[in-house]
Amino acid sequence: MILAIPSPLGVALGIATAAAYAATAAAASWLGRPSTQWMLGLAWVLHACVLAWSLAGGDPRFGFAPALSVTAWLVMTVYAIESRLYPQLKVRRMLAGLGAAAVLLALVFPGTPLHVSASPWLPLHLALGIASYGLFGAAVIHAWIMTRAEKQIRLAAEPQAGVPLLTMERLTFRFVTAGFVLLSATLLAGLLFSEQLYGASARSWKWDHKTVFSVLAWISFAVLLIGRARFGWRGRTARRVLYAGAALLLLAYVGSRFVLEVVLGRVT
Predict the structure, then answer these.
(1) How many whole angstroms separate alpha carbon 232 and alpha carbon 9?
(2) What residues contact 256, with CB distance under 8 A and at least 6 apart?
């Protein structure tokens, strides 16, 4: 999760990964499913190599772009598992495009060094947060598939070609529930152990932009799950709350770090 300064080999791996994703996105419309799956699998393996190589050496670093890169890889991992169970899923082109963009962005913006006083447990804390990003990202992808399927049904286009909507809805809320558990654990760890995680100079709880947006996202997902359980929320209403929560969560870390690293040019 904590990426080092890109080495020449790391840069070459990143470029090869982005090229593999881009080739998959370009070929998805005219190649058959087995060939496209194979190409996407190759890109996924290369992406894993990029992340593994980034962990191998150098000073530990982290930032908005590495967070997006890891999130994209996690979403791709979820798709790789699900595509075995539900081969009707048709999001290969979109996922390949997102993967290429995330890898290239991480090469351009490799992040900033972690504070020297940070705890060895900090990577686990960050891993929990990024894992929740990945699960909510998978939920958003599923919600988008549901929206597309509903439009196709209204237009009487490919009515039997995709995963049943009820199945897709159940999968979406499973990802939301799992992501909510991890997000809760991340926030709780930050609340109780921030001094141990970030060093003695860190305050126990700091209401900065990251904290505010994270709490607002947590509230949004809690409202979504309660609305689902108590009032049977589904369809457009549930998707809107999911999108709002995902947007707030994206702003919480990725958005705030983007402003610090790119807009303000600050190293923290």
Answers:
(1) 51
(2) 208, 209, 210, 213
| Tokens representing residue 125 in the block | 């804390």
- Burial bucket for residue 207 (CB in 10 Å: 0-12, 13-18, 19+): exposed
**Mean pLDDT of the chain, nearest integer:** 82
Q: Which residues contact 16 (CB under 8 A, 6 or more apart)?
A: 46
- Integer CA distances (angstroms), 67 to 86, 144, 245, 250, 268, in order: 28, 22, 18, 10, 16
Q: What is the pLDDT of residue 47?
A: 95
Residues facing residue 113 across a β-bridge? 61
Number of domains in the chain: 2
Last residue of a domain, one of 82, 113, 144: 113
**In 3-state terms, what secondary structure has residue 144?**
helix
Is the same domain home to 257 and 152?
Answer: yes
The Cα 6–Cα 50 span in angstroms is 10
**Stated pTM of the model:** 0.84
Q: Which residues pair with 62 in a beta bridge?
A: 112
Owning domain of residue 8: 1-113
pLDDT of 155 strictly over 80: no
Is it the case that residue 201 has pLDDT exceeding 90? no
CB atoms within 10 A of CB 92: 22
Count of alpha carbons within 13 angstroms of residue 37, beta-carbon side: 13
